[in-house]
């Protein structure tokens, strides 16, 4: 039977997206994770959303002081005005000397009196949202696991009749990081936060919803970061849930000889892999298509892992592509990616933002090797890239993926076997002829239709990109050391000589 309870927002758009709207109200939820994983920040966001809605909210802290919570709030630019705080230390002020004069063991009196005071504050304030931080202190006060579980069950029953949405925090410190299955069974939903320390770069954080009774949610791990302003959650991308209608048309570069290689150019909603040795012109080739898209008035994005943005713009402008003008008018966004600071989930979320908020129609990733190097300890990068490409395809975005090959001439290889995820593959190779180092271009794959199978010479200079005639009098061009056969080599010369 579907859940009919009102949904309450967590105060976090990304988290709400994972929960497909939010949490069913008036239920008990467990927020667990090791210290430093972001539980307190997420809990405060939950309560601040309640304050913004005019609700009465209560933060029960058995582990942190009000000064420490104020410090956390201040670091995010928040104020705790409107949040009622209950501290464990305040029990002494309420119970006075009688607190120490009990025939019971001190820990029994401590736990019982603390629970009574919590119930008293709840009765006085009648909050609709409550964060209980944390259960580890309750374990310490209870000493006995059976007593602790009885108290948690009693609290659940106490909250159940009072229309309160409760988020109980557990830092896992007293159980050596092991999850309390009994506690999981008591709660309506369980959310786990993790903090992973890598060999180099920033720590990675991720969360997963382990259970949410009676409701569908996006399962699996979701990356998140903690920045000024709170927790930013990046829901895992599921390409099948995104699709829009678009016209399947070719996208031209403005250079007829280049477009003819793909019989008009790449199709909307396809990905093109441009591969070749360093310095062969892979990025420039993608920029030619991108500049043409900007001239048509489309919004475009470049994610630059390898080259400096200033160098990229300067080089493109020197060839007449005029990228600086498109950057200035907002049509083109070039984002420099810091290799040590980004997770796959955050990268996918940035791409989604460009497509769904800026209506980006063409996207360049330069390069896939940089993408892989940025996240060396991630285990499923190619699978995640495949999902991202599928998402872009379903939204009609033209994608260019740049991947360099090792070596300059002769046999070359790529460290990434990613050609299967691309709809088209363009190969650029160096070859030697007439005492000069030249470049050849060929199409290895084009899923969406016919393509030219000839190998042509390509020149990239201050005048832009030129594609020559098929190299029909050469054999072995793709090896880098071709053999000339015939009378006329039909090679391209310098433009100045032609003029």
From TrEMBL:
It comes from the Bacteria. One of its GO terms (molecular function) is protein serine/threonine kinase activity. Keywords: Hydrolase, Kinase, Phosphoprotein, Repeat, Transferase. It is an enzyme of class 2 (transferase). Gene3D superfamilies: P-loop containing nucleotide triphosphate hydrolases. SMART domains: AAA. SUPFAM superfamilies: P-loop containing nucleoside triphosphate hydrolases (SSF52540). Residues 6-247, 249-481 form the KaiC domain. It holds the Pfam family ATPase. Its EC number is 2.7.11.1. InterPro entries: AAA+_ATPase, Circadian_clock_KaiC-rel, KaiC, KaiC-like_dom, KaiC_dom, P-loop_NTPase. This is non-specific serine/threonine protein kinase. It comes from Halopseudomonas laoshanensis.
